[in-house]
Specification:
alpha+beta, Beta Polymerase, domain 2, 2 domains, four-stranded mixed beta sheet, 14% strand, elongated, Nucleotidyltransferases, TA_antitoxin_MntA, NT_sf, Polbeta
Amino acid sequence: MLYSQRELQNILENYFKETADTYRIEMAFLYGSWARGYPKETSDVDIAIVFSETDDEDKVFRKITDITLSFMGRIKLEVNIIPVFLDFRKPMLYYNAMVLGIPVFIRDQNRYAALLDEAIFQMEDFSIFGTRWQLEIVEKRLEALSIHFEPVLEKFIEEIESFCRFLRNHS
């Protein structure tokens, strides 16, 4: 392993202090196996970044690409960066990153506290309403898939049954 958790955290803190103004970064979090303290040799470095509110998604994507390449060159490990959008479109992921992760750059402590509260609130809402909603979506998708693949599945089942008959007759 190239780094301890603390070493990687220090590298991230220094990196974001150097680059936060350039990329208009408000907050950055280390999350995943590195934050939990048990990365494997093959673990990537998971980072969540809150950019300034005025950036559109295309600009955020370009920034993430630049930061990923720059940081990978520095630490020689795979890096996975996700943006945290303020509409909390991925509440479970954001909760994992912001609440369970390690903050490595915070521009404004008050804004951080407010965003942390929002992450907890969104996750509570999601845990109450999200599972039912997800189940409904999965059921609809499975229904659509079964309709679409029914002829293929029927043919596949026929072939399996035929193969089983062959095995019974020749054993």
